[in-house]
Design goal:
3 helices; 2 strands; disordered C terminus; mainly alpha
């Protein structure tokens, strides 16, 4: 165990005034940072709301364009991982094996087979 000592100097006069200035500057900086954080959070929330409105309009359009039932918005996931590099995107939906109207049935209805390239 290491023994250590503290040395304290009581601030008075100009030193006390400077300590008060330092404390006030730190408090002001903290208040500004908190205000910026609140403003940032409001802006992020606004962006999220705008994006959600836009997506609410775009998803049904995508379903219509892809021939996927619009009533299934939210069940289908967009896989755009190949979009930038290969210009290809997919809609996919998890289906239980043997489920009526599953993905395999949908793909067969689109053009026979699985819809996959071999």
């Amino acid at each position: 165990m290491t023994d250590h000592k503290h040395i304290n100097v009581r601030l008075e006069g100009p030193a006390l005034a400077l300590a008060q200035d330092i404390t006030a500057a730190c408090d002001a900086a903290r208040e500004k940072a908190e205000a910026l954080q609140r403003d940032f959070e409001r802006r992020v929330e606004k962006i999220q709301e705008e994006t959600n409105r836009e997506l609410k309009a775009l998803w049904p359009q995508l379903h219509l364009a892809a021939g996927v039932p619009v009533g299934e918005v939210g069940e289908w996931k967009l896989d755009a991982s190949y979009l930038e590099d290969h210009g290809v995107a997919f809609l996919s939906k998890c289906c239980r094996e043997g489920e009526e109207g599953g993905l395999a049935d949908f793909l067969r209805a689109l053009g026979g087979g699985t819809g996959l390239k071999h």
